[in-house]
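Re: Re: ligand-bound prediction request (bumping)

Still looking for help on this. To restate: I need the protein modeled with pyridoxal-5'-phosphate bound, output as structure tokens. Inputs repeated here so nobody has to scroll up.
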Amino acid sequence: MPGYELFDDEEKRHVNEVMETGVITPYGFTAARKGRWKVRELEEAIRLRTGSKYALMLSDGTAALTVALAAMGIGAGDEVIIPTFTFVATFESVTAAGATPIFADVDKTLCLCPDSIKEAMTPRTKAVIAVHMCGASAAIDELSSFCRDNRLLLLEDACQAFGATFKGQALGTIGDAGCYSFDFNKMVTCGEGGALLTGSEDIYRKADMYHDHGHDHSNEDRGAEGHPFAGYNYRVSELHAAIGCAQIAKADRFLKIQRENKRVFKEALAGVPGVEFRSLPDPDGDAATFVSFFMPTEDQARNAAKALRGAGIDGVFHWYDNNWHYIRNWDHIKNRRFVNPISSDILKNMPDYSKAQFKSDEIVSRCVSITVKMGWSKDEVTSRAEKITSAVRSVL
Ligand SMILES: Cc1ncc(COP(=O)(O)O)c(C=O)c1O
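Reply:
Sorry for the wait, this slipped through. Here it is.
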């Protein structure tokens, strides 16, 4: 990770195919585009790769989550349970849909803890967003059966987990709907882009219309299309999809390299007493974008991150101190700061998080993650593994 590390002539070839026609929009202009439909081509590649019945490309992963929630019928008066450790986009998508986000703790999987969902539930709970953090699966079997038993919709935020699987099934295809991000930092990138996956024709049809102003896509003449309901614009361009077409074809190669590089890092770190790896509900399905581990104390984790950066290791995260991935530093959210007044309905049922303490503090405060890249030579991987272990040892 990220996919731009291995850009080559294939991305240029796909982009040039679009530029040769000049049709960079995904709809209409049928004659002028000469049969080139990059968004459709990428959607088909995603469907084939994941086994999902439907795939819809969107402008980004945040849009994919927002459109998924809307198409699942979630809105005013509903509560949606989300984890304390995620990217802020998960929260944003819930408020964008007009619903109330309710936080629940993560456990050593770095993903939602099934027991914590029980505590966060109220009669208004309509859905759970299971976020597959750092390239690997949540305890998705337990989360799915919990949602089934409690008649809750399950949306998988697999924005960080394209390519990852749980017991052979692509993440994002297990819940009622799932979402990917193909932003610039992801293993497969479009620059900006996202996808919604679902097995439900109803969710797909609604999402397909909603993301494009409610157009029903029944007519090649855009002006003659019907509008069953109001929508927005979350379309992606042909140029972004063109890059994705080149990248998705390399996904297996990306996974192979990352898994090998991660194996070397883990093997080296396994010899360091006091280091405990993140628990993986299905290690074989890990996309291996990060190696994540727990130090015995918060201070040791903070010091390990510092020592790693000092040793020249890039892509090191102590998420507890990071402003964008853990609730601790989300002051704007905890203090309910929005750019414009949002519906009082959203805030009415939201607990006061301004001074909230979470059980997951104990876990996330001790966690360190190191990005696994693809462009390194074998020697670079070995020397990084040595630097990583000696930096971590130095603070224990
Ligand atoms: C867990 C998670 N959800 C949602 C998103 C949003 O994706 P995008 O940046 O494509 O909007 C991200 C992006 O990093 C993410 O990590």
